[in-house]
Fold this sequence. Notes:
Mean pLDDT: 91
CATH superfamily: P-loop containing nucleotide triphosphate hydrolases
Structural class: alpha/beta
Strand order of the largest sheet: 2-7-1-8-9
CATH class: Alpha Beta
Order of helices and strands: EHEEEHEEHEHEHHEH
Strand content: 15-25%
Low-confidence stretches: none
CATH topology: Rossmann fold
Shape: globular
Radius of gyration: 16 Å
Number of domains: 1
Amino acid sequence: xxxxxxxxxxxxxxxxxxxxxxxxxxxxxxxxxxxxxxxxxxxxxxxxxxxxxxxxxxxxxxxxxxxxxxxxxxxxxxxxxxxxxxxxxxxxxxxxxxxxxxxxxxxxxxxxxxxxxxxxxxxxxxxxxxxxxxxxxxxxxxxxxxxxxxxxxxxxxxxxxxxxxxxxxxxxxxxxxxxxxxxxxxxx
Length: 188
């Protein structure tokens, strides 16, 4: 039997990964959907745990074969996507799928799965605060941060396409708000 989908999207640096980790530690019968990407691993990221790291050629072949539920070229030559087999793998275990996904991918999944999915947009308190978080993360240089902030401006304009918007100006409060919304959705 098919489960449900919980979609958490946000601009890079808004806190979606932290909130997703919080949800995984709650009793919500959720399992994290591992996305595929063509980018290089960062830090201690592991293949099959954080992402499926694949070549751009393999990614494009999987697109041609219809193996993705959604995919996006998020940055030039950097693809991200959700393999259909990943959703099916989790549903076969009787669990609900939890996504930490870019904004366009989140909208696409919500459009495909409709009422079987809840889509929550994590809003940064401001672009200035978002930039500070990206700088403190120390994973990108100044041009990368500039590109992420520019992209965030575009993504924020799409927030109204989500079921809910949660402003992450206080992490504890944002986590509890997202938890409450997800719990209500899964119990309905």
